[in-house]
Design brief:
This protein is α/β, with parallel strands linked by helices and 281 residues long. The chain has two domains: 212 residues, P-loop containing nucleotide triphosphate hydrolases (Rossmann fold), CATH 3.40.50; 58 residues, Alpha-Beta Plaits (2-Layer Sandwich), CATH 3.30.70. Helices cover 28% and strands 30% of the residues. It contains nine helices and 14 strands. The strands form three sheets. A six-stranded mixed β-sheet has the order 6-7-8-3-9-10, with helices on both faces. Strands 2-1-4-5 form a four-stranded antiparallel β-sheet, with helices on one face. A four-stranded antiparallel β-sheet has the order 12-13-11-14. A hairpin with a 2-residue loop joins strand 1 and strand 2. Helix 4 runs parallel beside helix 5. The longest helix is centred in the middle third of the chain and has 14 residues. It starts with a strand and ends with a helix.
Length: 281
């Protein structure tokens, strides 16, 4: 397997908080990877360490070379879309594009022109007057116009309506992803992206709980739905997660068992996450 980024015993501490605790990950090329965790689990800290924006303990390598703190060379091959836009409100859309083009050697005019042509971005309008959705669309255009190998997305669609969110991920798939590029997506809205994910990482309290191919993960578990009167029989099989529906009880089991009146299905990632890590935000 061709590994694009790897961490070994990666740790990060903020005063009395252990944000990352000996994280070992290998991110393969050509995969869309989800990063799922509760608030404060370490998702954003992990990404910022990968980008060299934070000092850390342990090691990180990208394409075989070490990731150093504040290593600007990394951004020739890595792009990042954070949850908070870093755009300069004083510039127009046109000036913003020109500035990013001027400071990035990996800028691709052909890709930028194609993305701009099918967007409705107002070139003469100042960034500060754009809506949250239009700012995100501009940020996405800037990032996708760079010829990079790895794209990190940190809760990129917070505050966007459902149409913008759908357009966002469709643009990512259509204009960036291929068999040589890797996308790591940190999100709370895993139900919106699980259909495009190939691998999933669960992180909790700075530790990696799980890192697995999604199809292999789902093949190991089954969701069982039974009438409420059969709940006691279901609980005899030591479910990992149980929740109630309208007149029914659902559970995640590690193997299929025969229960009267039961219906069987493929568990969703959010339910598997709760089964592995527990509830609450």
């Amino acid at each position: 397997m061709d590994i694009i980024m790897e961490t070994k015993d990666l740790s990060k501490r903020f005063k009395n908080v252990q944000a990352l605790d000996k994280v070992n990950l290998s991110l393969p090329r050509g995969r869309i990877i989800g990063l799922l965790g509760k608030n404060g689990a370490g998702k954003s800290t992990l990404m910022r360490c990968m980008l060299g924006l934070l000092n850390y303990e342990g090691s990180i390598s990208f394409m075989g070379g070490p990731v150093q703190h504040n290593d600007s060379c990394l951004f020739r091959k890595v792009a990042f879309i954070p949850d908070v836009s870093a755009l300069d409100d004083r510039l127009t859309v046109e000036q913003t594009i020109a500035y990013v083009k001027g400071v990035n050697e990996s800028w691709n005019d052909r890709k930028a022109d194609a993305l701009l042509e099918k967007s409705d971005l107002p070139l003469k309008q100042k960034v500060k007057t754009l809506s949250k959705g239009m700012k995100t669309k501009l940020y996405l255009l800037l990032v996708l116009s760079l010829d990079v190998e790895l794209l990190l997305l940190d809760e990129p669609t917070i505050g966007l309506d459902i149409l913008f969110r759908k357009e966002f991920f469709n643009t990512i798939l259509g204009d960036f992803f291929d068999e040589r590029k890797t996308i790591l997506i940190s999100t709370h809205q895993v139900n919106e992206v699980e259909h495009i994910l190939q691998d999933i990482i669960f992180i909790d309290k700075g530790k990696i709980i799980l890192h697995e191919d999604i199809e292999e993960l789902r093949a190991r578990y089954v969701e069982v739905k039974v009438p409420r009167e059969n709940a006691a029989e279901l609980r005899k099989h030591f479910p990992l997660q149980v929740w109630e529906g309208l007149g029914s009880v659902h559970a995640i089991l590690e193997e299929r068992v025969e229960i009267a009146g039961a219906e069987y299905g493929v568990p969703q990632l959010a339910d598997l996450f709760l089964a592995k890590v527990g509830g609450g935000q």
